[in-house]
Amino acid sequence: MSADDAQSGSKGASTAAQLLAAAIFSADRHRDQRRKGVRETPYINHPLEVSERIVRVGGVDEVEVLIAAILHDTIEDTETTAAEIERHFGPTVTALVLEVTDDRSLTWMERKRLEIEHASGLSPRAKLIKLADKICNVEDTESNPPSSWSRQRRRDYLDFAEQIALGCRGNNAPLDAEFVRVLTSARAKIG
User: Is 77 a catalytic residue?
Assistant: First the structure.
């Protein structure tokens, strides 16, 4: 089954079918990408982990949030457009994905500054995705960082992620606690 076949029936389909359609779509869009970590894991592992963390830790099983989590990097890191996501997954999912998407036309520093600035103003549903994303990224910074990252670069990322998490705090207590646990572990290991 192709990504297009999986997507075509996702509207009105069962929750499982919708989630699998999103996974197929995201896997297809990220097919040639690897994570930056030393293990160079397939990129698709990351959005699937973000969505799974929202369910397992956050206790959230809202299908639109989970689909948006699976698709959260497609606009930012692939050639996918908002129109494509809307056509296959609807306007609510598209709005959530756009809410957590950085503007790649800006410099890295400006994107990161705006990400911190906008975190507290995200919708509650987008905050779930953003916080789960940061939890996963902090874990990777601890256990699977890019080989070019120095200890200081890793520490800087942890500080950045903490600022984002502060903006998302108070929305989901289990995810808040998980972020603190993961951050504390990463800081202890990185030093």
Answer: yes
Catalytic residue among 64, 77, 102, 139: 77
CA distances from 25 to 8, 28, 30, 48, 121 (A): 11, 5, 9, 12, 28
Q: Helix, strand, or coil here: 42? A: strand
pTM, full prediction: 0.92
Q: CA–CA separation, 57 vs 174, rounded Å?
A: 6
Domains of the chain, CATH where assigned: 3-190 (1.10.3210.10)
The single residue listed with the structure tokens 């293990």 is 39
Comparing CA positions, the residue from 163, 40, 189, 167 lying closest to residue 99 is 167
Q: Does the annotation mark 76 as catalytic?
A: yes
Question: Are 158 and 126 in contact, with CB atoms under 8 Å apart?
Answer: no
pLDDT by 10s per residue, the chain, length 191 = 344 444 444 445 799 999 999 999 999 999 999 999 888 999 999 999 999 999 999 999 999 999 999 999 999 999 999 999 999 999 999 999 999 999 989 999 999 999 999 999 999 999 999 999 999 999 999 999 999 999 999 999 999 999 999 999 999 999 999 999 999 999 999 98
The pair of structure tokens assigned to 64 is 């639109």
Q: Of residues 28, 52, 64, 76, which has the active-site annotation?
A: 76
